[in-house]
Write a structure and sequence with these properties.
about 325 residues, ABC transporter involved in vitamin B12 uptake, BtuC, about 0% strand, transport, globular, transmembrane transporter activity, transmembrane, mainly alpha
Length: about 325
């Protein structure tokens, strides 16, 4: 599909509209929830703070979770684009290929056996887990006759996801303390996250966003085939390593702060391609904006599903993403 937006000016205007929508959604995230607040109260929480319950909720809960949700959604959206382009697999994403599960397993392992508790430690061990899971999935998918194919890589990723998920559950069964600390986090959630937690991972995420944008032109050449990319002078080995490193940073950082949130990385790139076609110079920024909007909207919805309690945002993204995933599989796109 060539997309429904044509011309660079229209696509640029679409980005501006997307940024405005993202800002509106973030404002709604700040004012909506079990405790009703208003835009006026949100502004006064920073300009005329009076210590009221509403002002405390806005400062300590609503604003941080809105910013965390936007940052994680941007990261997962871009990670999905990179993975789908690298593997030429339209259902590639950090959760399908076991990257999120690997990061989650390493973090639970650290909590259970190493006693880690800080977000800084979560971040580094999450990066390591994401890298190990991605490497194992790639190696397993490349084994055997025919080398690496989209179907083999998908199956290898599913195996890695199931393996790490099973190991994680096994550790939690034997350690009630770890279960209490990470159960809600493992479902994927931005509730209760603090700005200090975001500040820890944000520099790495921002760098990965910027580098991913720089790689977008090379993604176009690589999408034509590795042989074509080489003939155009692309150093494909260096490119693939750089793109894979960005996926590890984006997925590992997201899991460290919000847990393994599923389906954002699958769904978002397809929406972006529908809007702007197959030019990754536009797909990457569009996916970033759509990913942020989708995750923050899912978080708003998670507040109302079982009110007065809150559902993990990962549950809502799964409800959104599962029908889309089934649609892709039924069309047989990934078998190309």
């Amino acid at each position: 599909m060539n997309g429904i937006l044509y011309g660079n000016k229209i696509k640029a205007a679409g980005l501006i509209v997307g940024l405005m929508v993202a800002l509106i959604i973030m404002v709604l995230s700040v004012v909506l929830g079990y405790t009703n607040t208003s835009l006026k109260q949100a502004i006064e929480a920073y300009t005329a703070f009076n210590g009221s319950n509403e002002h405390l909720i806005i400062q300590l809960s609503r604003v941080p979770r809105s910013l965390v949700g936007m940052a994680v959604g941007i990261s997962l959206g871009i990670a999905g684009v990179l993975m789908q382009a690298l593997t030429r697999n339209p259902i590639a994403s950090p959760d399908i290929f076991g990257v999120n599960a690997g990061a989650g397993f390493f973090i639970v392992f650290g909590v259970t056996f190493l006693g880690i508790s800080s977000i800084q430690q979560f971040m580094w061990i999450g990066f390591l887990g994401a890298a190990v899971a991605a490497g194992l999935a790639y190696a397993l998918g490349s084994a055997g006759q025919g080398g690496l194919t989209p179907v083999k890589l998908t199956l290898a990723g599913a195996v890695m996801a199931a393996l790490f998920a099973s190991l994680t559950q096994g550790m939690l069964v034997t350690n009630e303390k770890a279960l209490d600390e990470v159960l809600f986090w493992l479902a994927g959630s931005v509730e209760g996250r603090k700005l200090s937690m975001l500040a820890t991972v944000l520099p790495a995420l921002v760098i990965a966003w910027f580098i991913s944008l720089l790689l977008s032109r090379q993604l176009n050449a690589f999408a034509l085939g590795e042989d074509v990319a080489i003939s155009l002078g692309q150093k494909t080995v260096v490119f693939k390593l750089a793109a894979a490193l960005m996926v590890i940073i984006l997925a590992g950082g997201s899991v460290a702060i919000a847990g393994p949130i599923s389906f954002i990385g699958i769904v978002v790139p397809h929406f972006a391609r529908y809007l702007v076609g197959n030019d990754h110079r536009w797909i990457v920024p569009y996916s970033a904006i759509i990913g942020g909007i989708m995750l923050v909207m899912a978080d708003i919805g998670a507040r109302y599903i079982i009110m007065p309690e809150e559902a993990p945002v990962g549950v809502v993204t799964a409800l959104i993403g599962t029908p889309f995933f089934i649609y892709i599989v039924r069309k047989g796109i990934f078998q190309k």
